[in-house]
Write a structure and sequence with these properties.
Layout (H helix, E strand, L loop, with lengths): L6 E4 L5 E2 L8 E6 L4 H8 L10 E3 L5 E4 L6 E2 L9 E6 L9 H18 L14 E4 L17 H16 L37 H10 L15 H13 L10 H9 L2
Parallel strand pairs: 1-5, 3-7, 3-8, 4-7
Antiparallel strand pairs: 2-6, 4-5
The chain binds zinc ion.
Length: about 260
């Protein structure tokens, strides 16, 4: 069986620099703490001063390359010169879905293969050779906590990477002919900045998380900051259940009720 990789498209980030000759020996995986479209928009802006080689969609079907492999992306501080960065759309607190973990494992396995890196967790003892999560890099990697430090989830990911690494590798990971749909800022996506900035009230992402936590929507909402029909329906249900004025909008009274509800 040949390894299946997500459809790949390109969108440039200005946030990159030279590796100054350092060889890649590490693949660092992250989660975006934001949506796919929002994160791609953010990495595409010079003001963000962050980037990754690859951003993966939450359904695991689409990937966008933003920095050429030969260049250094800005994702893990001191580790950038010799690493590749892969950002998975979503939030550490919510966890990633099975399809996204599997696609992430496929990407990691393929890039280990291309770079001739052994299939192993990287750590200080092996001179950071292999793959790891951002959290494992500690303070030198920027002190972030993504994706998970849950040993059982990490072990499950290791098994996925090993299985992917054992498959036949495609010759290349070519760019898809048809560009992926990346909602623009004007379509309602917004750039996501510092960690979990967008999860604070009264953002729409926060409201979506609260509605999910309260079990209001029958099917949990995608936390994407988009005021779509499912989100509006959930707001209506919540407003009805609390005797609020029912308009489907997340106004001050609804925010207050969402904060107070348990
Ligand atoms: Zn990270």
């Amino acid at each position: 069986m040949t390894l299946v990789l997500p459809a790949l498209t390109w969108r440039s980030s200005p946030n990159y620099s030279s590796r100054y000759g350092q060889r890649v020996r590490l693949i660092v995986i992250h989660d975006c703490e934001g949506s796919f479209g929002g994160s791609v928009s953010w990495f595409a802006m010079a003001v963000s001063q962050v980037s990754a080689h690859i951003v993966l969609s939450a359904d695991g079907l689409q990937a966008i390359q933003m920095v050429a492999w030969a260049n250094k992306a800005w994702h893990a501080c001191n580790f950038n010169p010799f690493s590749e960065g892969v950002e998975a759309a979503g939030y550490s607190a919510l966890g990633l879905g099975a399809a996204e973990w599997a696609a992430l494992a496929a990407i990691v396995a393929f890039r280990l293969h291309v770079n001739g890196i052994p299939c192993q967790r990287a750590n200080a003892a092996n001179n950071w050779t292999g793959y790891c999560e951002h959290v494992e890099l500690g303070v030198a990697g920027g002190g972030h906590h993504d994706i998970t430090d849950d040993p059982s989830k990490q072990a499950a990911f290791d098994a996925l990477v090993r299985a992917a690494f054992a498959q036949d590798m495609p010759a290349t990971w070519g760019m898809a002919a048809i560009p992926a749909m990346v909602p623009s800022a004007s379509a309602g996506w917004k750039p996501i900045g510092t960690v979990r900035h967008d999860l604070a009230p009264p953002s729409l992402e926060w409201a979506q998380m609260r509605l999910n936590a309260l079990g209001v929507p029958v099917v949990p909402l995608t936390v994407d900051g988009l005021d779509g029909r499912n989100t509006q329906n959930a707001v209506v249900r919540f407003q009805q259940s609390r005797g609020l004025y029912v308009d489907g909008d997340i106004g001050p009274d609804t925010i207050k009720a969402l904060e107070a509800a348990s």
